[in-house]
Amino acid sequence: METTRLKIAVQKSGRLLDGSVELLKECGIRINNGKDQLKASAANYPIDILYLRNSDIPQYVQDGVADVGIIGQNTAFEKQKRIEEVLPLGFSKCRLSIAVPKHVSYSGPSWLQGKRIATSYPNSLRHFLQEQDITAEIHEISGSVEIAPNIGLADAICDLVSSGSTLFKNGLEEQDVLLQSEACIVKNDKLSAEKQAVLDQLTFRIQSVLKARHNKYILMNAPADKTGEIINILPGMKSPTVMPLATEGWNSIHTVIEEKQFWEIIGQLKAAGAQGILVIPIEKMII
Ligand SMILES: Nc1ncnc2c1ncn2[C@@H]1O[C@H](COP(=O)(O)OP(=O)(O)OP(=O)(O)O)[C@@H](O)[C@H]1O
Ligand SMILES: O=P(O)(O)OC[C@H]1O[C@H](OP(=O)(O)OP(=O)(O)O)[C@H](O)[C@@H]1O
Ligand SMILES: [Mg+2]
């Protein structure tokens, strides 16, 4: 019997492609495809990859042409299709915001009343304006939105912001944030049980990779009489491992901590007598 294959849509080229392919690779999925080949099969896993335009993926997933897709949460919200978010993926983080020329004294969303706003996200903007009880003219354009106020096309824009440098270079200032976004997996709402099982396995692998990315394995040496104090500082997964060093009166202490916690506690560890602290990346983490 042929095994069920899950069809997963990823962006053909653009902001999401590298993160999507890298993640699948780290999940141990080998994709054999030549350049310009828009469908590829994983050699060692029951999935097929479809390379599509990002903005088309929600429709394809709703229709079942693809079973799942990797898109930004902003696109999932904008397209309003019958698709379900399965898992946020932690990359391509950005936000959808209102921005206006920097000389404008923006008094809040009510400033937008009666104005022209350029955007590639008309549904998300309409939703925001309705919520704020504001009537404005939505001018839909498909790219280079930040140029619109400078060429007299609009008074304000509603577009994606990440570092803010595109806004800055175009003399605009970010005002209200409509939504925060990161890449996510979405799925068709009527997946067969077999396909759901393949997706569950894939999700398990992805979670192990994502968890590992946020954690570090750390080890350090410490005098035996300081070991208790150091253990109290460490917020590890469980209890840390303590092993005696060849030098009498010294221990090696190992544990796993979130990277962001590490920077918070490094000073405390040193002050408590830890030496030779090593921080090592983790490849996969299963808990
Ligand atoms: N500057 C950014 N920083 C981080 N993530 C971003 C940024 N710009 C866009 N994204 C995210 O990447 C997604 C894809 O953006 P990209 O510009 O590559 O494609 P697109 O022009 O929206 O789509 P298409 O593939 O249909 O041409 C966006 O929907 C958003 O989630
Ligand atoms: O805040 P920043 O870090 O400057 O990023 C924001 C810019 O990035 C995206 O455009 P992109 O480069 O994807 O170009 P596009 O309009 O062709 O999609 C987005 O539409 C903004 O223009
Ligand atoms: Mg873009």
TrEMBL record:
Domain Histidine biosynthesis HisG C-terminal as annotated: residue spans: 212-284
Gene3D superfamilies hit by this protein: 3.30.70.120, Periplasmic binding protein-like II (3.40.190.10)
Cited PROSITE patterns: ATP_P_PHORIBOSYLTR (PS01316)
EC numbers for this chain: 2.4.2.17
Metabolic or biological pathway, per its Swiss-Prot or TrEMBL entry: Amino-acid biosynthesis; L-histidine biosynthesis; L-histidine from 5-phospho-alpha-D-ribose 1-diphosphate: step 1/9
Molecular functions per Gene Ontology: ATP binding; ATP phosphoribosyltransferase activity; magnesium ion binding
GO terms under cellular component: cytoplasm
Coiled-coil portions: none
Keyword Cytoplasm: yes
Localisation per UniProt entry: Cytoplasm
Pfam families, per database record: HisG, HisG_C
Control of this protein's activity: Feedback inhibited by histidine.
Catalytic activity: 1-(5-phospho-beta-D-ribosyl)-ATP + diphosphate = 5-phospho-alpha-D-ribose 1-diphosphate + ATP
Domain ATP phosphoribosyltransferase catalytic intervals: 53-207
Cofactor dependence: Mg(2+)
Enzyme class: transferase
Function noted in UniProt: Catalyzes the condensation of ATP and 5-phosphoribose 1-diphosphate to form N'-(5'-phosphoribosyl)-ATP (PR-ATP). Has a crucial role in the pathway because the rate of histidine biosynthesis seems to be controlled primarily by regulation of HisG enzymatic activity.
Family under the similarity heading: Belongs to the ATP phosphoribosyltransferase family. Long subfamily.
HAMAP family: HisG_Long (MF_00079)
PANTHER family named among the record's database cross-references: ATP PHOSPHORIBOSYLTRANSFERASE, ATP PHOSPHORIBOSYLTRANSFERASE ATP-PRTASE
Name assigned to this protein: ATP phosphoribosyltransferase
Gene: hisG
